[in-house]
Protein: CDP-alcohol phosphatidyltransferase
Amino acid sequence: MLLPNRVAALQVNRFVRLPGEAIIGAAVLLALPKRPRIALAALGGTLLGALTVVNVLDIGFMEYLGRDFNLVLDWGLLDDAQSYLADSMGKTTAVAAAIGVVVLVVLVLVLMALAAVRLSNILVLDHRRATRGTLIAGTAWITCSVLGLQYAGIPVASDRVGARLHSEARHVRDTLRDEAAFGKEARSDTFGNTPADQLVPDLRGKDMIFTFIESYGRSAIEDPIMAPGVDKTLDVSTKALAKAGFHAKSGWLTSATYGGSSWLGHSTTMSGLWVDNQQRYRTVMASDHLSLTKAFQKTGAWDTVGIMPGVQKGWPEAKFYGLDKVYNAFQMGYQGPKFSWSTMPDQYALEAFQKLAHGKDRDKPLMSEIILTSSHQPWAPIPKMVGWDELGDGSIFKGIEESGTKAADVIADSTKSRQEYGKSIQYSVTALTQWMERYASDDTVLVFLGDHQPIARVSGDNASRDVPISIVAKDPKVLDKIASWNWTDGLKPAHNAPVWKMSSFRDRFLTAYGSTPNPKND
Structure:
């Protein structure tokens, strides 16, 4: 009844309170005949067991995703969590953990029910004394509540169970209402009816590349442990690109997600809608809302391709993103080892992009969406850069993976996680910018950004949800179009650079490059 749903709240003062629900429960049980009493006690115990499970889920979700568990939407994410554990720690560990969790949940529910029944039986052994004790406890609770008595800053009189049940009911109601409201929002589109010849006319002839770097957040650039190495990489990369004739401008976007669920960040950026839960994601993917990448396909002036090393099953989302061809984890010829969750090093994925799409002769320029995964948690082991001509089928990475830091040595250590996370961001940025130096042409335009901040164990309990975003081009006219954005020159956004909601980027980008608004309202 008193268990908090936050790690930081697991303090002694939270467990020395007087739960009002226990007093009411005792009074009701004392008034009931035997059979109804036992049935109600068992039901109440099971409910408390379920509430305990939800509290623990809240703790886990807050740690990894920066939010509470959603009773309506989040059950499907538990399967993703098991897949992540299998990729990071091995299938045996994942299976054992899944079995252990199921057994533990069943035990919590059963034992809480049995405990409640046992307590009800103890109450009725001495009905008079139990009634007197209940009255005294009720009087004490009312007194503490009226006087506002506290212990170590926490009210002694607790109504946590009732407040929590009310909160969860309200959350479920709001979730169900949001589905209809967001569906209406998704049907309205500022550029939904824009003719093809009026979409991004100022980028015609350019090879467009939209790249998401996994977990690339503000903390990578500003945290005292991660920032020195990452900032140095950004500075070195900015200079190397400038030497090759490329220049960049950078700012900040506030992501719709945190710690994980990268697809929410991807869809928010590309749709121009705030997609912060799985229900909204499903609604957007099933809609005809114009994604930023699909705008290029709609013009008919670009071939479109997706490089998705993290996709390991069917991916119908390709239609929403307007991708003519998608290369998943099994279609890029990689024969090397996985690096925990990441199916292949970013350097290899980028080289595969060059061989499979970018480097081929075409009648049209290419618009590409690339998801880089080497900076996905648990950030161990991390790939190392090798000679681009030595990549081959990826077998060269076997020795690197074997000699790298093991996930088990990092996953529960905050300091090591922060250190390795910083190194993974350095690797991803280096791979991407070196690819630009090696393969990009005068007409290449790169937009790259993070999808979300890393988990709280790395970014901190009070970290923002901001992620860096950069636009890189050789043609000065491309960056001149966004001069009014007041972004920072180079790949490292200044601390006080503009911060926009991630959902605003699509419309700002389309407008900056000459697209004509033609709203669709349904």
